[in-house]
């Protein structure tokens, strides 16, 4: 069958070559991962990485990021300054080449950068390609030089001298292209988290964030780097060990390794953050593989030496329960390998055995020298092993539907989906029986399951496993999802591709969302990190009127949408303000909140592990003084009072 949209012939003239930065604008996700908020902020990271590389090489100890009122962002460093002389290969100023040619830069020369994050050499040019405009000011050899690009890297102001200076460094300012990105609003918290992370990794370098939009400045500076990083993550937790800090240098490969780790009581998760040349490797890689193998071997051997295991070796997950570990490697350019331009996973083969031997040797010696600490650690690991075995047993019993004396109490409220194609199935966790009844009537029976909640779930932060399983709501959720919990959780066993939290759009609904997310965060974290958890967004308004024998209606999710809907419906409209899901009938709930063709869902993700850990432990933990302090510092009660008065 032919398609009139396609040519019948295919010749040499049909081959098109995308010149310069055209390819980046044509396929931006290939270079920055996405065109949503993640991709937007990746533009900032690419420029910041260049400034960090200068500091890593010993040039400059201050980096300033400014968010300007016009929507642009600038990054100022105190490095050597990007060269402004003529590049022999192109006949153009070197700074112009850096910002207009892919795979151009000094990162490919080990004499210029011993260790660098910008291995691919496309960062600065990609930021230029995806910006409305970009300006570079270079402070070098006593001169101030300026160059400007517009509309995706087109040169509009050639390099020119604009005065003299005693400073040295580079200032890059750019405005993202709104034609490329779904949002062009920079988030201060996201950038602040990234800069704080960089400050932890670079002891002695000061990072400054200036937000001109709200007239606020933040500074991040740490003398003890990774040790302070771990302390920050575990600030509200009970510590089993102090922060243990190791460093090493491999003469053969030139790779330097640094690890800081700490064990906490009453914590059932592992938090491992890894870095290569100050770039966070979110997907892990060879250095994480080596770390896990090394720590598993060291702890098992220590336990065997004191006959603490009775012939049963500890699994890696038992040893890593309650562990917070930071792994930072500095790798020479010649050995550095990432998988993909976004540098999410380290691929350097040598890193596996280097980190494995490094952590094994260092930790073995440390445990030997600190025997009492080591014995306490083994006790925690054995407890984790027993809990894992018990959880696996409970999971198997639930699968086989055998009734035992230790059977957990399960709710009879679940209305299951009929399909066994689990990844296509959706579980709606619904607030209240009324909304649950409407959801059952309006659901797709094949792929959608409904679980109404009876009241609010438990706050599971710091909760013991025995208490967890005694709670009917939590036990039912565990059983329904079907993949276990805690260290025994297996993402491959989940019965639903989407877990959708559906609550009222009020404070109680937000509280239920928070309690459920806290549970998933502590006991089923891979469910979140793998993209399976969502929050349903029901409409706030129904705008309608009768036209003859026909009902015309629109829905609105915010006040702006309400005004648009009023205009669309026209005179004589009526407005219903939904105070809860229970006010919708089955048809309304289906077409606004459950039907994949028309609903609005928010996917839950962990953008910043440090920020997520701190927020959960502060807001959901038992330390009321920390929570009170956070509320006092972050909540404007005058604005809340004004909002309440306006609502009334």
Explain this structure.
With 648 residues, the protein is of the alpha+beta class. It folds into 4 domains: 22-220, Histidine kinase-like ATPase, C-terminal domain (Heat Shock Protein 90); 225-388, Ribosomal Protein S5, domain 2; 408-538 and 578-606, Rossmann fold (3-Layer(aba) Sandwich), CATH 3.40.50.670; 610-648, no CATH class. The protein is 38% helix and 20% strand. It has 21 helices and 21 strands. The strands form 4 sheets. The protein has an 8-stranded mixed β-sheet. It has a 5-stranded mixed β-sheet with strand order 9-10-13-11-12, sandwiched between helices. It has a 5-stranded mixed β-sheet with strand order 15-14-16-17-21, with helices on both faces. Helix 3 packs antiparallel against helix 5 (123-129) and helix 8 (286-305) packs parallel to helix 10 (350-369).
